[in-house]
Amino acid sequence: MQLDEQMKCWNHAAVKVLDIRRIVMEAGEQLSSYTLPANGFIYTIRGSADLQLDGRAYKAERFYMLHGAKGSSLDIQTKEDFEYILLYYRAFLAFPSYRKKWLLAQPEVAPFSLQYGFAPSSPLGLLRYLDELEGAWIQSGSLDLLHTKSLFYQFIHEMMVQLAEQEIKTELADPVKQTLRYIQNHYREQVTLDFLAEQFNYSSRHLSMQFKRQTGHSPIDYLIQTRIAKARNLLLRSDATLSEIAAEVGYSDVYYFSRIFKKHVGISPIQYQRKMREEARTEDRPLVISESSIGRRWKSGYIDYENHYQYIDGGSTPMKRRKTSSSMIMVALLSITMLLAACSSGTATTPAAGEGTGASSNNSSTAVSSDTGSQTNKDSETRTVSTVKGDVVVPANPKRVVVLYLQGDVVALGVKPIATSDVYDGAAYKSELEGVNALGTWFEPNPEAVIDLDPDLIIVPSEETYTLLKDIAPTVYIPYEKLTTEERLHDIASIFGKEQEAETLITNLNNKVKESKKTLADAGILDKTISIVEGGLKGMVIVESKQFGRGSQAVYEYLGMKAPEVVQKKIDVVSDAAGSTISMEVLPEYIGDYVFRSVYEGADNLTDNPIWSSIPAIKEGRLIEIDFDFFYYSDIYSINKQLDFVVEKLLAAPRTQ
Fold this sequence. Notes:
It is built from 24 helices and 25 strands. By secondary structure, the protein is an alpha+beta fold.
């Protein structure tokens, strides 16, 4: 971008000053890999220092101006006392006509993302504006903030004049280099494509395209590869536990980490560690491994959804990092909208959920218990589905269905989707989805991958995924965590016009439950207590809800079996997913006549633990290990299979005395 183009941008810009501060660094002090949270100016007042902005070196003497784009990495090394003014701002093209013209001409370029450094020919003029800016900013009254904005424009004018006089060379920040550097420094944190795009002032689509063009990988693929490489290093060079390694590389859910590792390496982490160490001993040679820097471990945030006992990583950069919010969602939405506008000329617009349409206004929908119903419009071969987000017009016979997390119910209804979120290997319906595209985790699907599939219907389980995908195709949001299995199945069936099939499935399930209860009662087992646990030596999670997963629906809800009294008191009053982590020392108080323990590869071996081994149910052989994959899901397909498993294992276990 030429300087005159930058000047045109400023003529059409709306700005907001975000912060202005005066900073003094002592001799020998340094600032490393600081990510600029917004576009900013650095103006040195006293002393000198070596600066690097995205790896480019600048020698900053007294009265030196440096401009960096949002997301740039700043390093400062001082040899003497060094004082500078730091000014952060946000600017955007205010007028729609000019903004559209800019996007058509150079959509991959952020308008205010130039990087440059120079020694002003009239330094005191710039300093005067910055001093006045600082004074008005400190006052922070409404009139003072207005004065701040007017002073900022004057400061920009003066700086542009001096830039033009000296014919200073400017360059665009490279978003790919910035993204690579950010991932290397922050792979332990929660990183999404939308966050990276917002971090560097680019649309998700263009960042992804440029990144893939230069590296051959998408940003998220590169993130995963970085994490896996660090994990492989730790598996070979340390005796850290699997959970410790998972947390160190950004996965607080050790099971999810194991799955990702196996998917990319071909074998599980434990098998990889054993294999590589055996090869090293056999070949009697030193291991040749790449070094990795060890950084901070970030606190994790809980995923507040039924049956998802895992975590999303979070953290902060040296500047305050914003939380996942509506702004992130709007960035994602804007990115998708721009992509559709660029790629879908001549395509009929599909009404989004909640928007008024001829079909939805002229037809009354049949409501069901959760405010979701449908009515077929035979003339147009569409169906109007009433949802918590409003009426959505969907194809009467969809052919290209994308579904996140709810695939078990969809499969049970006889519908094979073209793509779903990742399915665990041991899921009951895994074989039914052979050849179906995988879109990643259910709570972070890849919008570009969804667009490429050209779906005619999307079914999602959360507000976030609904907002992310609703402009791609007709999208139905099923708030599954608020529905029973039967209610959820009815709602999904109404989308496809398969209400009768749903009734048959529910009737068959109820018959199976009735027969299973009779079988267990005849065997003297139905009135025995059941504990469902997950964890290891450092702590054990006790399931305290019928909606937790891990078999809780099958055992506590459908079979109606009870937990030990201390646990049952909570189950009786809790309607959401709930569980408590307790120490091994008090675990015996929470264990019933039978124990179901959720396990996965890499789970702690408790055989030699004296407390665990002394528990009557364990000692007498009434421990039933359940596969995490198989019991993760709570759809009607999975519940049917889980009931078979539970009854079979209870009948095979030794009876209580």
